[in-house]
Every structure is written in C-alpha cells, then in structure tokens.
Amino acid sequence: MDRDKQAKQGLTVSPYETISAHMDKFTEMQAFVAVADAGSFVKAAETLGVSKAAVSRYLAELEARLGVRLLHRTTRKLSLTPEGEVFQARCRDLLGGVSEAEAEITSSSGEASGLLRINVPFSFGLLHLAPLWAEFMAQHPQVVLDVTLADRVADLVEEGFDLAVRIARLPNSSLVSRQLTSTRMVLCASPTYLQTRGHPGHPSELADHDVLTYSLFSMGEQWEFTGSEGAVTVRVRPRLRTNSGDTCRVAALRHQGIVLQPSFLVGPDLQAGTLVEVMPAWRSIELGVYAVYPSRKFVSPKVRLMIDFLAKAFRTRAWPA
User: CA-CA distance, 108 to 104, in Å (whole number)?
Assistant: First the structure.
C-alpha cells in the first residue's frame, strides 16, 4: 500500500519508511526538473547520471501520485502542461532551498567549490578586478569562475548570477550589498583642449564646451556639482555620447572635449598630467563600489569568500580620491 495512504488510514508507518518516502519524492522532483530543463529524457538521464528508464519511471510515478499530467510528450519534443509549470516553480524553490541549506552548513568550514557566476562593470572589471581573479583561484582551487563584463544592470536572479559588483550612489534595495570602496566622478580634459578652448570657471559655462558623455550614467546629461554656492545641476549638450567610459576617456586624451568620469578610470591620467581636473572647486558626486547578491539567507561559501576577498583587496584604494 502507498505510504501516504497508510498514514491517512491510521496505519503505522515506520520512521525509515517515512524517510524513504521523502527521498523518493525528492528524487522524483529532481528528475522532473531535469527533464523540464533539458527537454529530453535522455539528456536528463545524462545530467542525473541514471538510465533513461529510471527517469521515465520517476516521472510516471510522480504523475500517478499527483494525479495530473505534468508533461506533454510527442515524438518531437516535450513541453510543460499548465500544472507542470506551476509544479516546476515549486520544485525549483524546494530543491534550491535544500542546496542553500547544505551550503549554509558547510560554510563554517571555509571550503568553497563549484561554479561562481559574477557580473561586473566593463572598465572596472578590466582595470581593477581582472588582476584579482588569479589570486582568488589560487586560494580556492575548487571554485570555477564565470565572469561576465557588462555595464548594463543585470537581473541577478533571472540571469543566474551569484554575485555582482556595481558602482552606484545607492545599490538596489531589493538586493543585499556590501560596500567595497568608493570612487569620485571627476570633471577633466586634456591640457591641449583647455589651452585651445579655455578653462570654465562655473558649471554653467559647460554649455560653451564640447562635452563627452557616458550614456549609461545615472545622472544622464544633468550633471551635478557642489561648490561655494551650494548644489548646482547643469544640462550638458554632448558632442559625443557613448555607452563606454573608455571611449570617453580616449576622446578626452585626444583633446576632443571635457569628460565626467570616475577616478578609478581617469586617476592615472590625472597623475600623469595627460588629463587635468576642471573646476576643482566644484566637486561632482561620489559613487560606492558594492558587492551585491540576491539574498542574505544561506550565502554559499564561494559567495561569502569572494565578498570577503574583494573587501580585503579594496581596503586600500588603488586610485586617487
């Protein structure tokens, strides 16, 4: 007799039978999710390391126990039924919870393993994060890094990222964050450009200059400054608009205009004198550099160790304030 039916009828069910029943349900859910993800019983069997017949049996027993069809099966493809879509979401939550619980238990040992998917800003990733990955991998040889460089704001949950580094005034409130360091937005241009076009003395004078803007900047083309007169916002008219901070920097180095770029990017140019700060009495905004992740609960060892590693690496800022 089915164990669930035994329990409902008041018949004795041993603890071992109860554990076995839960294990069977867990295996059935794993098989169902694997088939739904792979779209194939054969591929699901390869993923789970079992036979195709075993996967088919798990799915048949699951559907029989639930009394609903979860998958439409044709000779060409598999697809989820409406009930299957609902059940798949629930299974993902439950299976994910088990994985997170295991990660929480093992995190105290400091061991880390598996794939760690990280999303980082392009320029910052190249300049200041790329040199760090080798050191982290040497310290944690069981971790495999998958690093995506992109300036757009990725949906960590939807796109499957474990962690992201973001540069912003405030991080997304729906995520958990830890500030690693900060960077100041610096108004600057080449000495040659300023000799030719003159030095603006007030933010309002930027209207008379060629301006090179970063199109993904949170302020857009409304640039903010603070000086002796208080806070001032000016609308700039860009000569060049681009989604690449590096492109803005190179154009400024080629004497094409004034840029407002983070100190982590233009700091070396300011130190070398190839770019000079414009209107230093007027300061623009400061941005935080944050490690962000989806949830405070059940942070896996690999994520926890990476955040601690980055926080230590940026304890001393590598660029001028």
Answer: 8
Which position has the token pair 């980082």? Answer: 120
Dihedral sign, Cα of residue 118, residue 88, residue 39, residue 153 = negative
3-state secondary structure at position 71: strand
The separation between CA 240 and the C-alpha centre of its own chain, rounded to angstroms, equals 29
Which ranges constitute the DSSP H helices of the chain? 3-8, 15-38, 41-48, 52-66, 82-106, 122-124, 130-139, 156-159, 191-197, 245-253, 263-272, 301-313
The answer to whether residues 119 and 154 touch, using CB atoms and an 8 Å cutoff, is yes
Contact in structure between 289 and 167 (CB atoms under 8 Å): yes
pLDDT tier at 36, thresholds 50, 70, 90: confident
pLDDT in tens, 279-314: 999 999 999 999 999 876 667 889 999 999 999 999
Residues in the chain: 321
Which domains, ranges and CATH numbers included, belong to the chain? 3-107 (1.10.10.10), 113-182+288-313 (3.40.190.10), 184-284 (3.40.190.290)
